[in-house]
Amino acid sequence: AAIDSRDSLFGNEARCPTCSRRCELVANATCGHIACSACWLLCCASQVRCCIDSGRLGVTCCHAGCGAQADIRWTRIAAWEVAGHSLPSPELQDLCGAARTLTEHCESAGQELARLSAFGVRRLEGALQSGPTCPICRESCVALLADHGSSKCSEHGACERCWLRWAQEQLERCVLERRVAVPCLAAGCGEDISFRLWQYLSSRAVDLSDLERRLARRRRL
User: Fold this and answer.
1) Which range is least confidently modeled, 28-37, 119-128, 190-199?
2) Which residues contact 68 (CB under 8 A, 6 or more apart)?
3) Backbone φ, ψ for residue 34 (5° rounding)
4) DSSP state, 12?
5) Other CB atoms closer than 10 Å to residue 197's CB: what's the count?
6) Higher-confidence residue: 178 or 58?
7) Burial status of residue 165 (CB atoms within 10 A of its CB: 0-12, 13-18, 19 or more)
8) I need a surface site. Which of 108, 134, 140, 190 has the fewest CB within 10 A?
């Protein structure tokens, strides 16, 4: 989904169908709906909290009843376009700040999803779908990390934060047993996590990484 480039779509002034201002309009390439820069920013700003709380990766078109995805990347150039409207400066700053927050969230979430994809994730298709709920902390997340390196508990998923916290809680046991002694965090599952998942987790936390270096030296002896 994309909002077309300003080179091809910013032309003669017209009346915005959303706010009724006369100004240059931008069209969303996915659905063809048009609105002014200010209304697209308002659209993005109004969906910031929902995206962050639900693990969504995108926002919908600003036209009521339209479920098409709007391109949040466009918000990076929207601030100076909005400056030509009659929005008070504090309001303009709030809108642009919210739009930047949304852009950063969606880009960060996309990077997280790409990073986790090599380690087994579960997520509904589509950027406008809410992310899955972690069965441990009960919070929505971008995706669930599952131990696909294990043949017995590959369906036991949780968010990355819960996996990391669980692994860190097992550090003392790992040191005492001089091995990776981290059981699956699913209730009733006593299987140790795979070495593949351990390597990933140890790459995401300093204390786990320090332990893995010590264990790696021991394995080489």
Assistant:
1) 119-128
2) 1, 28, 30, 31, 33, 60, 61
3) -115, 155
4) S
5) 23
6) 178
7) middle
8) 190
Give whole-number Cα distances, 18 to 22, 31, 37, 65, 192, in Å.
11, 15, 11, 13, 56
29, 36, 74, 156 from 6: Cα distances, Å: 12, 12, 9, 46
Q: pLDDT by residue (tens digit) across 183-205?
A: 999 888 888 998 989 999 999 99
Q: Which tokens hold the place of 171?
A: 């550090």
Query: How is residue 65 written in tokens?
Result: 């009843």
Q: State how far the Cα of 198 lies from the Cα of 214, in Å rounded to an integer.
A: 14
Neighbours of 211 (CB within 10 A): 20
pTM for this predicted structure: 0.70
Residues in the chain, total? 221
The owner of tokens 């697209």 is: 40
Amino acid, res. 192: D
What's the mean pLDDT in 41-49?
Answer: 81
Q: Which residues pair with 60 in a beta bridge?
A: 69
Question: What is the average per-residue pLDDT within 164-169?
Answer: 95
